[in-house]
Amino acid sequence: MPFFILGRSKCVICHQPIKHRFDAAELPYIDPNVSKSLSQLAKNFVHRQCWKEWEYAKLFSTLAFDLVGGERPFAPTKGSGDDSPLKIEFESDELILFWVVALNSYRLQDFKLLVTVEMPLAKFPGIVAFFVSALSHQGFTKEYQIDSDIWKARWVNSALEFTVCEELEIVDRFVVPSDRQNCWLTVMKAMLNTVMEKMGDGSANAFTSPEGYAPGTRRNAELIV
């Protein structure tokens, strides 16, 4: 598995060095039985701009999503009682919220945008509220801290840009365009509704232990919101 080395790691699309970490996105796995040539690019890095313009981007993202989100034999087992390391909580239009067993956290992965957001369980409600507010209100400019990372959101015309800083250094930056915002908002609102239901039920420990919340029960976000 390649490691990102600033200024040395090359984009597998344009074959030029990636000069800034926030310009880089990592390609996910796809099934080699479906496309051997594309599967060989998995876990390599690309410029975000190159990805947006790449002729195979749509095919690659669809195959990557099918590997984990589709109804296939090798997809993560649904339900909370299995041993799958990734459990699907919600999914909508190639956007999946996973429960990551080993990390005791959630992972939001957008296969179309090549964006992955790690969300520690203890801070999950606040993170979700941050995203919902940012996506719901143009002009939103607040910040949110996740451990040592500072998340910033700002609207650029009709697109919503997120920037992640660590000790004043930008480590990630991505844009959620207008045609993806409803998908993100749908999943985030679904999770926020779940947070509110748990709090309303008096389940104060529901978001401090995976047993309290029982992550891994797959739901279609479009049916909840």
Question: How would you portray this structure in words?
Answer:
This protein is of the alpha+beta class. The chain has 2 domains: 1-75, no CATH class; 76-223, Transcriptional Co-activator pc4, Chain A (Roll), CATH 2.30.31. Helices cover 28% and strands 27% of the residues. Strands 6-5-4-3-11 form a 5-stranded mixed sheet, with helices on one face. A 4-stranded antiparallel sheet has the order 7-8-9-10. The longest helix is centred in the C-terminal third of the chain and has 23 residues, at 178-200. The protein is globular. 28% of the residues are buried.
Helix content: 25-40%
Per CATH, what is the topology of the largest domain?
A: Transcriptional Co-activator pc4, Chain A
SS content category: alpha+beta
What sequence of helices (H) and strands (E) makes up the elements?
EHEHHEEEEHEEEEHHE
CATH architecture of the largest domain: Roll
**Poorly predicted regions:** 72-81, 203-225
Query: How many structurally independent domains?
Result: 2
Shape: globular
By DSSP, the count of extended strands is 11
- How many angstroms separate the termini? 38 Å
